[in-house]
Protein backbone atom coordinates (compact mmCIF):
# COMPACT_ATOMS: atom_id res chain seq x y z
CA UNK A 1 0.00 0.00 0.00
CA UNK A 2 1.38 3.41 -0.96
CA UNK A 3 1.84 6.15 1.63
CA UNK A 4 -1.00 8.17 0.11
CA UNK A 5 -3.52 5.32 0.32
CA UNK A 6 -2.30 4.45 3.82
CA UNK A 7 -2.90 8.01 5.04
CA UNK A 8 -6.31 8.01 3.35
CA UNK A 9 -7.36 4.82 5.14
CA UNK A 10 -6.04 6.11 8.48
CA UNK A 11 -7.97 9.36 7.98
CA UNK A 12 -11.23 7.50 7.27
CA UNK A 13 -10.81 5.21 10.29
CA UNK A 14 -10.00 8.07 12.68
CA UNK A 15 -12.85 10.16 11.24
CA UNK A 16 -15.35 7.35 11.79
CA UNK A 17 -14.24 6.69 15.38
CA UNK A 18 -14.24 10.38 16.21
CA UNK A 19 -17.64 10.77 14.57
CA UNK A 20 -19.07 7.92 16.63
CA UNK A 21 -17.64 9.41 19.83
CA UNK A 22 -19.06 12.86 19.05
CA UNK A 23 -22.49 11.46 18.15
CA UNK A 24 -22.58 9.46 21.39
CA UNK A 25 -21.59 12.51 23.44
CA UNK A 26 -24.07 14.80 21.71
CA UNK A 27 -27.08 12.50 21.93
CA UNK A 28 -26.47 11.43 25.53
CA UNK A 29 -25.69 14.77 27.21
CA UNK A 30 -28.21 16.42 29.54
CA UNK A 31 -29.25 19.73 28.10
CA UNK A 32 -29.68 22.71 30.44
CA UNK A 33 -32.00 22.07 33.39
CA UNK A 34 -33.97 19.33 31.68
CA UNK A 35 -32.44 16.53 33.84
CA UNK A 36 -32.84 12.85 33.30
CA UNK A 37 -36.61 12.92 33.71
CA UNK A 38 -37.22 15.49 31.02
CA UNK A 39 -40.70 15.67 29.61
CA UNK A 40 -39.49 16.76 26.19
CA UNK A 41 -41.23 14.79 23.44
CA UNK A 42 -40.38 14.03 19.84
CA UNK A 43 -43.80 15.23 18.76
CA UNK A 44 -44.93 11.70 17.88
CA UNK A 45 -48.31 10.71 19.33
CA UNK A 46 -50.28 7.53 18.63
CA UNK A 47 -53.88 6.65 19.42
CA UNK A 48 -54.39 10.07 20.97
CA UNK A 49 -52.55 9.42 24.25
CA UNK A 50 -49.35 7.43 23.49
CA UNK A 51 -46.48 9.94 23.38
CA UNK A 52 -42.84 9.30 22.41
CA UNK A 53 -40.46 11.07 24.80
CA UNK A 54 -36.96 12.25 23.96
CA UNK A 55 -34.91 10.99 26.91
CA UNK A 56 -31.17 10.20 27.14
CA UNK A 57 -30.02 6.59 27.04
CA UNK A 58 -29.43 4.83 30.38
CA UNK A 59 -25.99 5.47 31.85
CA UNK A 60 -24.94 1.78 31.65
CA UNK A 61 -25.86 1.66 27.98
CA UNK A 62 -23.84 4.79 27.19
CA UNK A 63 -20.86 3.36 29.07
CA UNK A 64 -20.99 0.19 26.94
CA UNK A 65 -20.70 2.34 23.81
CA UNK A 66 -17.69 4.16 25.26
CA UNK A 67 -16.06 0.85 26.15
CA UNK A 68 -16.64 -0.31 22.58
CA UNK A 69 -14.91 2.77 21.18
CA UNK A 70 -11.93 2.36 23.54
CA UNK A 71 -11.70 -1.32 22.60
CA UNK A 72 -11.72 -0.49 18.88
CA UNK A 73 -8.84 1.97 19.33
CA UNK A 74 -6.82 -0.62 21.24
CA UNK A 75 -7.62 -3.28 18.63
CA UNK A 76 -6.44 -1.05 15.76
CA UNK A 77 -3.20 -0.34 17.60
CA UNK A 78 -2.54 -4.01 18.40
CA UNK A 79 -3.59 -5.48 15.03
CA UNK A 80 -3.07 -4.02 11.52
CA UNK A 81 -6.03 -1.86 10.62
CA UNK A 82 -4.66 1.64 10.13
CA UNK A 83 -3.38 1.66 6.58
CA UNK A 84 0.10 0.20 6.34
CA UNK A 85 0.65 0.37 10.11
CA UNK A 86 1.61 -3.21 11.07
CA UNK A 87 0.28 -3.09 14.62
CA UNK A 88 2.27 -3.60 17.82
CA UNK A 89 1.49 -7.35 17.89
CA UNK A 90 3.20 -7.92 14.55
CA UNK A 91 0.31 -10.17 13.45
CA UNK A 92 -0.20 -10.93 9.75
CA UNK A 93 -2.62 -13.25 7.95
CA UNK A 94 0.35 -14.78 6.12
CA UNK A 95 2.04 -15.55 9.42
CA UNK A 96 -1.19 -17.05 10.77
CA UNK A 97 -1.46 -19.23 7.66
CA UNK A 98 2.16 -20.35 7.90
CA UNK A 99 1.76 -21.25 11.56
CA UNK A 100 -1.42 -23.23 10.89
CA UNK A 101 0.23 -24.98 7.95
CA UNK A 102 3.29 -25.86 10.00
CA UNK A 103 1.04 -27.32 12.69
CA UNK A 104 -0.92 -29.34 10.12
CA UNK A 105 2.29 -30.53 8.45
CA UNK A 106 3.62 -31.69 11.80
CA UNK A 107 0.45 -33.71 12.47
CA UNK A 108 0.57 -35.24 8.99
CA UNK A 109 4.27 -36.06 9.34
CA UNK A 110 3.53 -37.78 12.64
CA UNK A 111 0.69 -39.80 11.14
CA UNK A 112 2.10 -40.53 7.69
CA UNK A 113 5.82 -39.80 7.95
CA UNK A 114 6.55 -43.51 7.55
CA UNK A 115 5.44 -43.20 3.91
CA UNK A 116 8.05 -40.54 3.08
CA UNK A 117 9.88 -41.61 -0.07
CA UNK A 118 7.88 -44.84 -0.39
CA UNK A 119 6.62 -45.79 -3.89
CA UNK A 120 2.93 -44.98 -4.26
CA UNK A 121 1.95 -48.56 -5.12
CA UNK A 122 3.36 -49.63 -1.75
CA UNK A 123 1.59 -46.77 0.03
CA UNK A 124 -1.65 -47.98 -1.61
CA UNK A 125 -1.41 -51.14 0.51
CA UNK A 126 -2.27 -49.05 3.59
CA UNK A 127 -5.97 -48.12 3.66
CA UNK A 128 -5.46 -45.23 6.08
CA UNK A 129 -3.02 -43.59 3.65
CA UNK A 130 -5.34 -44.18 0.68
CA UNK A 131 -8.26 -42.74 2.66
CA UNK A 132 -6.29 -39.60 3.47
CA UNK A 133 -5.16 -39.37 -0.18
CA UNK A 134 -8.81 -39.56 -1.23
CA UNK A 135 -9.62 -36.55 0.97
CA UNK A 136 -6.70 -34.62 -0.50
CA UNK A 137 -7.91 -35.56 -3.99
CA UNK A 138 -11.40 -34.27 -3.17
CA UNK A 139 -9.96 -30.94 -2.02
CA UNK A 140 -7.39 -30.35 -4.76
CA UNK A 141 -8.14 -32.56 -7.78
CA UNK A 142 -11.89 -33.21 -7.96
CA UNK A 143 -12.59 -29.78 -9.45
CA UNK A 144 -11.09 -30.97 -12.75
CA UNK A 145 -11.19 -34.76 -12.59
CA UNK A 146 -14.54 -35.02 -10.81
CA UNK A 147 -15.42 -36.37 -7.37
CA UNK A 148 -15.40 -39.89 -8.84
CA UNK A 149 -12.13 -39.24 -10.74
CA UNK A 150 -13.80 -40.14 -14.04
CA UNK A 151 -12.90 -36.82 -15.58
CA UNK A 152 -14.81 -34.70 -18.07
CA UNK A 153 -14.23 -33.12 -21.47
CA UNK A 154 -10.57 -32.11 -21.51
CA UNK A 155 -9.82 -33.83 -18.18
CA UNK A 156 -8.77 -37.50 -18.26
CA UNK A 157 -10.50 -40.39 -16.54
CA UNK A 158 -8.17 -41.66 -13.80
CA UNK A 159 -10.04 -44.92 -13.15
CA UNK A 160 -9.30 -46.75 -16.42
CA UNK A 161 -6.07 -48.14 -17.88
CA UNK A 162 -5.66 -45.48 -20.57
CA UNK A 163 -2.85 -43.00 -19.87
CA UNK A 164 -1.87 -40.05 -22.01
CA UNK A 165 1.50 -39.59 -20.31
CA UNK A 166 3.37 -42.81 -19.75
CA UNK A 167 1.74 -46.14 -19.03
CA UNK A 168 0.37 -45.51 -15.56
CA UNK A 169 3.38 -46.72 -13.58
CA UNK A 170 3.67 -45.46 -9.99
CA UNK A 171 6.66 -43.24 -10.84
CA UNK A 172 4.88 -41.69 -13.84
CA UNK A 173 1.75 -40.92 -11.83
CA UNK A 174 3.81 -39.33 -9.08
CA UNK A 175 5.82 -37.34 -11.64
CA UNK A 176 2.59 -35.94 -13.08
CA UNK A 177 1.27 -34.89 -9.68
CA UNK A 178 4.52 -33.34 -8.52
CA UNK A 179 5.56 -31.49 -11.66
CA UNK A 180 2.43 -31.28 -13.81
CA UNK A 181 2.03 -31.78 -17.55
CA UNK A 182 1.66 -29.39 -20.47
CA UNK A 183 -0.08 -30.59 -23.62
CA UNK A 184 1.18 -29.15 -26.90
CA UNK A 185 -1.07 -30.04 -29.84
CA UNK A 186 -0.34 -27.23 -32.33
CA UNK A 187 -2.92 -25.87 -34.80
CA UNK A 188 -2.34 -27.83 -38.01
CA UNK A 189 -4.90 -26.49 -40.52
CA UNK A 190 -2.29 -24.62 -42.55
CA UNK A 191 0.17 -27.53 -42.47
CA UNK A 192 -2.26 -30.16 -43.78
CA UNK A 193 -4.02 -28.21 -46.52
CA UNK A 194 -6.62 -25.94 -44.96
CA UNK A 195 -10.26 -26.92 -44.48
CA UNK A 196 -10.06 -29.72 -47.03
CA UNK A 197 -7.06 -31.25 -45.28
CA UNK A 198 -8.72 -30.93 -41.86
CA UNK A 199 -11.81 -32.74 -43.17
CA UNK A 200 -9.76 -35.56 -44.70
CA UNK A 201 -7.48 -36.07 -41.70
CA UNK A 202 -10.49 -36.01 -39.36
CA UNK A 203 -12.11 -38.78 -41.35
CA UNK A 204 -8.90 -40.82 -41.25
CA UNK A 205 -8.45 -40.33 -37.49
CA UNK A 206 -12.02 -41.50 -36.91
CA UNK A 207 -11.38 -44.57 -39.01
CA UNK A 208 -8.36 -45.48 -36.88
CA UNK A 209 -10.60 -46.23 -33.91
CA UNK A 210 -13.32 -47.94 -35.91
CA UNK A 211 -15.65 -44.97 -36.24
CA UNK A 212 -17.57 -45.03 -39.53
CA UNK A 213 -16.04 -42.50 -41.93
CA UNK A 214 -16.15 -41.75 -45.66
CA UNK A 215 -13.63 -44.16 -47.23
CA UNK A 216 -12.50 -41.68 -49.90
CA UNK A 217 -11.91 -38.90 -47.35
CA UNK A 218 -10.13 -41.28 -44.99
CA UNK A 219 -7.85 -42.53 -47.78
CA UNK A 220 -6.91 -38.96 -48.71
CA UNK A 221 -6.43 -38.06 -45.06
CA UNK A 222 -4.06 -40.99 -44.49
CA UNK A 223 -1.39 -39.42 -46.71
CA UNK A 224 -1.75 -36.04 -45.01
CA UNK A 225 -1.61 -37.72 -41.60
CA UNK A 226 1.60 -39.55 -42.50
CA UNK A 227 3.28 -36.31 -43.54
CA UNK A 228 2.45 -34.27 -40.42
CA UNK A 229 0.61 -36.06 -37.60
CA UNK A 230 2.62 -39.29 -37.55
CA UNK A 231 5.60 -37.41 -36.07
CA UNK A 232 3.82 -37.37 -32.69
CA UNK A 233 1.02 -39.92 -32.89
CA UNK A 234 3.07 -42.52 -34.78
CA UNK A 235 2.48 -43.97 -38.26
CA UNK A 236 -0.08 -46.42 -36.85
CA UNK A 237 -1.81 -43.82 -34.61
CA UNK A 238 -0.77 -45.58 -31.38
CA UNK A 239 0.51 -42.33 -29.89
CA UNK A 240 3.64 -41.49 -27.93
CA UNK A 241 3.29 -41.50 -24.13
CA UNK A 242 6.62 -39.70 -23.74
CA UNK A 243 5.23 -36.68 -25.59
CA UNK A 244 1.72 -37.01 -24.22
CA UNK A 245 0.44 -37.71 -27.75
CA UNK A 246 -2.65 -39.90 -27.20
CA UNK A 247 -3.39 -43.23 -28.84
CA UNK A 248 -5.91 -42.57 -31.62
CA UNK A 249 -6.91 -46.21 -32.01
CA UNK A 250 -8.17 -47.19 -28.55
CA UNK A 251 -11.54 -45.44 -28.56
CA UNK A 252 -10.66 -43.21 -25.58
CA UNK A 253 -11.18 -39.54 -26.40
CA UNK A 254 -10.31 -36.62 -24.15
CA UNK A 255 -12.30 -34.02 -26.09
CA UNK A 256 -14.84 -36.22 -27.88
CA UNK A 257 -14.87 -38.53 -30.90
CA UNK A 258 -17.45 -36.69 -33.00
CA UNK A 259 -16.36 -35.08 -36.25
CA UNK A 260 -16.68 -31.51 -34.92
CA UNK A 261 -14.53 -32.15 -31.82
CA UNK A 262 -11.74 -33.93 -33.70
CA UNK A 263 -11.64 -31.36 -36.50
CA UNK A 264 -11.59 -28.54 -33.93
CA UNK A 265 -8.54 -30.07 -32.27
CA UNK A 266 -6.74 -30.50 -35.60
CA UNK A 267 -7.58 -27.01 -36.80
CA UNK A 268 -6.96 -25.02 -33.58
CA UNK A 269 -4.77 -27.35 -31.52
CA UNK A 270 -5.13 -28.21 -27.84
CA UNK A 271 -3.30 -26.81 -24.82
CA UNK A 272 -4.50 -28.74 -21.77
CA UNK A 273 -2.41 -28.16 -18.67
CA UNK A 274 -2.05 -30.17 -15.47
CA UNK A 275 -0.51 -27.83 -12.87
CA UNK A 276 2.38 -28.91 -10.67
CA UNK A 277 1.10 -29.78 -7.20
CA UNK A 278 4.38 -30.15 -5.33
CA UNK A 279 4.34 -26.43 -4.35
CA UNK A 280 0.72 -26.86 -3.17
CA UNK A 281 0.74 -30.27 -1.51
CA UNK A 282 4.38 -30.98 -0.81
CA UNK A 283 6.14 -34.25 -1.55
CA UNK A 284 4.52 -36.45 1.12
CA UNK A 285 0.93 -35.38 0.42
CA UNK A 286 1.55 -35.78 -3.31
CA UNK A 287 2.58 -39.37 -2.66
CA UNK A 288 -0.61 -39.98 -0.69
CA UNK A 289 -2.71 -38.55 -3.54
CA UNK A 290 -0.70 -40.65 -5.99
CA UNK A 291 -1.43 -43.77 -3.95
CA UNK A 292 -5.14 -43.00 -4.12
CA UNK A 293 -5.00 -42.37 -7.89
CA UNK A 294 -3.00 -45.55 -8.47
CA UNK A 295 -5.51 -47.54 -6.40
CA UNK A 296 -8.40 -46.39 -8.60
CA UNK A 297 -7.17 -48.43 -11.56
CA UNK A 298 -5.60 -51.24 -9.51
CA UNK A 299 -8.45 -52.25 -7.25
CA UNK A 300 -7.48 -55.86 -7.11
CA UNK A 301 -3.98 -55.02 -5.90
CA UNK A 302 -4.99 -52.84 -2.95
CA UNK A 303 -4.82 -54.74 0.31
CA UNK A 304 -7.96 -54.87 2.44
CA UNK A 305 -8.44 -52.61 5.47
CA UNK A 306 -7.01 -55.14 7.89
CA UNK A 307 -3.64 -55.36 6.12
CA UNK A 308 -0.48 -53.51 7.06
TrEMBL record:
Quaternary structure annotation from Swiss-Prot or TrEMBL: Component of the cbb3-type cytochrome c oxidase.
- According to UniProt, the name of this protein is Cbb3-type cytochrome c oxidase subunit
- Which Gene3D superfamilies does the UniProt entry name for this protein? 6.10.280.130, Cytochrome c-like domain
Query: Main localization of the protein?
Result: membrane
**Which positions does UniProt annotate for heme c 1 binding?**
141, 144-145, 274
> Which terms under GO biological process does the entry name?
oxidative phosphorylation; proton transmembrane transport
UniProt lineage? Bacteria, Pseudomonadati, Pseudomonadota, Gammaproteobacteria, Lysobacterales
Q: Where in the cell is it found?
A: Cell inner membrane
Q: How is the cofactor bound?
A: Binds 2 heme C groups per subunit.
Amino acid sequence: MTTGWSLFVIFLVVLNIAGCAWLLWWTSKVRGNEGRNTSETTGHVWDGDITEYNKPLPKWWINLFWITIVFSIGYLLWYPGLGSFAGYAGWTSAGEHDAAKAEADARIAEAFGRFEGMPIDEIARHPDAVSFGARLFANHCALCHGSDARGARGFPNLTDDSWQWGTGTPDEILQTILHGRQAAMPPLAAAIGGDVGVTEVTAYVQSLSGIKADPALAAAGKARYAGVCAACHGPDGKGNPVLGAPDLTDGVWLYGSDFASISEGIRNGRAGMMPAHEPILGELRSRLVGAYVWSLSHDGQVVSSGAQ
